[in-house]
Amino acid sequence: MAAEATHTDTRTAVAGGARLLLSGVGMEFPQPHTGQTLTALEGIDLEVTPGEFIAIVGPSGCGKTTLLRLIAGMTAPTAGTIAVGDSTAASARTGFVFQQASLYPWRTVLRNVAFGMELRTRTPNRHERSRRAVRRQAQDLIRLVGLEGFEDYYPHQISGGMQQRANLARALAIAPELLLMDEPFSALDAQTREELQIELQRIAVQTNTTTVFVTHDIGEAVYLADRVVILTGRPGQVRKVLSCPTPRPRPLAYQVSDEFMALRNAAWELVHSN
């Protein structure tokens, strides 16, 4: 049976966030069978300040995940530029949390998190001092995400929510300038999802990591983000950016506040309008 963790607060050394700047970003995909191109994104201009948390919502197929992949440097845009601090998207230090847990099944929670540090240094930890330092830092991150006591568990021995906590710890292990999250809670049950929304707010504030969060859930976007970026249907363009004034982290009670209701309704109308 998969176990569930309780949270133990801690402080850890995670680098603060970088400024993200998108200027005129567009993306086209060739369609070999027709000889035409599909325009997925067009004219995206967006600035995200260091430590800011933004959420991206929009109609299905509007290019949300494509935009996230461009920001991650996985693919180069066909138009415009993306800068993360003083770096290009491809060379920036970026953590990515996917919709499905992507832990290595043959590694324990501790060794999965430590793998993020191996990526950061790009060298194996052959020396005992290095191994001890990596283990200590990995344990700090495990405490940060509320998984203390589960360091030696394998992914199949823990719940989906705990796997996503471990994924988040591994993403933070590279000390990212930018944290990207692609619907990370969509496969979880409602209670676990709510718990992780609370935890993510705490961690994002504590680490001051610049975060871009893609979701289909408009309420989730308003609850978590400093600003909600609303895209049009394809080709995806920025229709509107809504500011969420209440400081993070926000209590659950925020979700029944007048501010939350007004922002969620405004965002819903923008997403579903032609």
TrEMBL record:
This is ABC transporter ATP-binding protein. Keywords: ATP-binding, Nucleotide-binding, Transport. The keyword rRNA-binding does not apply. It holds the Pfam family ABC_tran. It comes from Streptomyces brasiliensis. PANTHER family: ALIPHATIC SULFONATES IMPORT ATP-BINDING PROTEIN SSUB (PTHR42788:SF13), TAURINE IMPORT ATP-BINDING PROTEIN-RELATED (PTHR42788). Residues 20-258 form the ABC transporter domain. Signal peptide: none annotated. GO terms for molecular function: ATP binding; ATP hydrolysis activity. The keyword Transport applies. It comes from the Bacteria.
